[in-house]
Amino acid sequence: MNGTHRGRVEWIDTDSAGIHHNTAIARYVESAEAALMRGLGLDGYFPVAPRVRYEVDFEAPLRFGDEVTATVHVERLGTSSLTLAFEVWGGPEGTPAVRAARGRYVTVHLDRASGTASPWPEAWRSLLGGAP
Fold first, then answer.
1. Are the C-beta atoms of 79 and 120 separated by less than 8 Å?
2. Dmax of the chain from CA atoms?
3. pLDDT tens across 49-88, in order?
4. 110 and 48 in contact (C-beta within 8 Å)?
5. What pTM was computed for the model?
6. Which of 83, 89, 119, 122 is the most exposed place for a label (fewest CB within 10 A)?
7. How many domains does the chain have?
8. Residue 39: which CATH number?
9. What value, to the nearest 5°, has the Cα angle with vertex 103 and ends 118 and 42?
10. Is a pLDDT exceeding 70 seen at residue 32?
11. Which stretches within 1-132 are classed as H helix?
């Protein structure tokens, strides 16, 4: 299962040249991640799953007004970690999309009481493991 975010590059997402700012990619990806977790029924995921690693390859610029689509999927499920892979595609409306960025990041399940890593709940493991 993929999580998907579709939108446009807004002016706030760009630098002074009108090209996407690196942080915009993270916001598009987090929106796709939220869609994935909602689709899996894991509404309590975000308060207990901070990012501990993030890597991205920037491949092409996106510009103000471009359409943008970000997708996220589960790449690996560990005992207490989760690796999510992503791609961000976009371009002017009516033209073939280009891949603007790709990468992956790792979240860790936290026990909120102790603030330390803890195994994913079995019910969550079942849902996350079933997401290709």
1. yes
2. 51
3. 999 999 999 999 999 999 999 999 999 999 999 999 999 9
4. yes
5. 0.92
6. 122
7. 1
8. 3.10.129.10
9. 40
10. yes
11. 22-40, 122-129
CA 27 to CA 83: how far, in whole Å?
Answer: 17
The per-residue b/e assignment along 95-115, b for 16 or more CB within 10 angstroms, e otherwise, is eebeebbbbbbbbbbbeeeee
Q: Average the pLDDT over 43-48 and give the result.
A: 94
Specify which residues 105 forms β-bridges with: 54, 84
Answer whether 104's CB lies under 8 Å from 83's CB: yes
Consecutive H or E run containing 86: strand 81-91
How confident is the model over 77-103, as pLDDT tens digits? 999 999 999 999 999 999 999 999 999
Q: Which domain holds residue 100?
A: 2-129
